[in-house]
Amino acid sequence: MKRIFGMGVGIVWLGMASLAFRNSSAGWAAGHSDLGVWWGVIAGVLTIAACGALIGTWLHTRPSGA
């Protein structure tokens, strides 16, 4: 159950990062470099958090003998 919850959190954060990358791209396309930069920073932080959740869940829910 812990693995399902942890992976679910990681996937949700990847979804939010995807939306932030889209906002960043739209900001750059509209000529608003400040929005592009800051949405890109937010997307990067969310991606790092998602990878941490996915990798951490995978590492900490392995059987003891692995």
Architecture blueprint of SSEs:
Blueprint: H1 2-29, H2 33-60
Helix pairs in contact: 1-2
Q: Which descriptors would you attach to this protein?
A:
single chain, about 70 residues, mainly alpha, 2 helices, about 85% helix, about 0% strand
Structure description:
Helices cover 85% and strands 0% of the residues. The chain is an all-alpha fold. It is elongated and about 55 Å long. The two termini are 19 Å apart.
- Overall 3D shape: elongated
Strand content: under 5%
SSE arrangement, N to C: HH
Mean pLDDT over the residues: 95
Helix content: over 70%
Helix/strand class? mainly alpha
Number of helices: 2
Give the termini separation: 19 Å
Query: Over the alpha carbons, how many angstroms does the gyration radius reach?
Result: 15 Å
**Major sheet description:** none
By DSSP, the count of extended strands is: 0
Low-confidence stretches: none
Sum this structure up briefly.
The protein is built from two helices and no strands.
